[in-house]
Amino acid sequence: MIITLKKRTPQSEVDRLIESFERQGLRVHFSEGENFNVIGLVGDATRLSERDILANEWVANVQRVGAPYKLANRMFHPEDTIVDVAGIRIGGHEKIAMIAGPCAVEGLDEIVEAAKEVKEAGAGLLRGGAYKPRTSPYSFQGLGYEGIKDMVKAREITGLPIVSELMSADKIDEFAENVDLVQIGARNMQNFDLLKEVGRLNKPVLLKRGMSATIEEWIMAAEYIMASGNPNVIFCERGIRTFEKYTRNTLDLSVVPILKERTHLPVIIDPSHATGDWKYIEPVSLAAIAAGADGLIIEVHPHPECALSDGAQSLKPAKYAELVKKARMVARAVGRDL
Ligand code: PEP
Ligand code: MN
């Protein structure tokens, strides 16, 4: 970190600042310039906040040289992290992970039918929300624990590992016991208490990007989970909120190379919430794989027109099967498999 002090900073203040950084275990290089004096800090400055240092009236500028995250940072962990979800390896040069299923679990018959169909089409994991974060309190809120139990039955029948969203820390034991991949939804990406709780969990976490979150805020959310002891985090881009109205959200595909450059964690894409329209899911999915994504999470419903949530962006199983075939060709073209 490089801290620029105003030229007329009193010596007592310079000494006080240097001493306080040294007390925090940092090495300090001080150099006096023509118009400014510069303090260079060497060591782990992740605990320091640029904004707090700027509160000092003698500080003209603060520049962080490294990133504020450590555990997620590829600089300190050059090899790709591969996250194991009940035996399915996600990340690195592993096969593209195909997660599919309805937005919400609507009942045992529906989820079992969906699970069988997505498996037949080529999916390797089953998604299904039991606790749903709906914009309206009058919309279907999910089946709760019944939905989790239905997912477990669908897993027993098909063998597909299950992915479901955890909205509240009081359900953590239920998820620890039953769910293979714990999803943290966009709306909870910065629910720091929840992040700390899943950080203590011995289950992998699918961390969705907040709808208005910068990439750095998102990586810091992963850092929360990792700093609490859980290294198994998968990023999931699901579109961000922009001025554009022709899609539900705006898919930011650039996150794939950016996250891969800066972090060592797997990245998957959710084209369903990103576009909001089943017609756009296939082309966007193919682009995601070409860009280097490690997986796709796609909403598939046996009867989208009757879905209790997100039917408009849900593929019919036959369409999903076509998508999987094309996705496999793109994966092979970029040196992966599916
Ligand atoms: C979901 O996956 O069903 C969901 C609610 O996603 P998001 O948190 O990305 O909106
Ligand atoms: Mn949904």
Helix and strand arrangement:
Layout: E1 2-6, H1 11-23, E2 27-32, E3 36-42, H2 50-54, E4 59-63, E5 83-85, E6 88-90, E7 97-101, H3 108-121, E8 125-127, H4 145-158, E9 162-165, H5 172-178, E10 181-184, H6 192-199, E11 205-208, H7 215-227, E12 233-237, H8 255-262, E13 267-269, H9 271-275, H10 278-290, E14 295-299, H11 317-333
Helix pairs in contact: 3-4, 3-11, 6-7, 10-11
Bound molecules: phosphoenolpyruvate and manganese (II) ion.
Q: What does this protein structure show overall?
A:
- The model has no long low-confidence stretch (mean pLDDT 97).
- By secondary structure, the chain is α/β, with parallel strands linked by helices.
- The protein folds into two domains: 62 residues, Alpha-Beta Plaits (2-Layer Sandwich), CATH 3.30.70.1140; 251 residues, TIM Barrel (Alpha-Beta Barrel), CATH 3.20.20.
- Helix 3 packs parallel to helix 11.
- The chain has an eight-stranded parallel barrel, surrounded by six helices.
- The chain is elongated and about 75 Å long.
- It is built from eleven helices and 14 strands.
- 43% of the residues are buried.
- It starts with a strand and ends in a 5-residue tail after the last helix.
- Phosphoenolpyruvate binds next to loops.
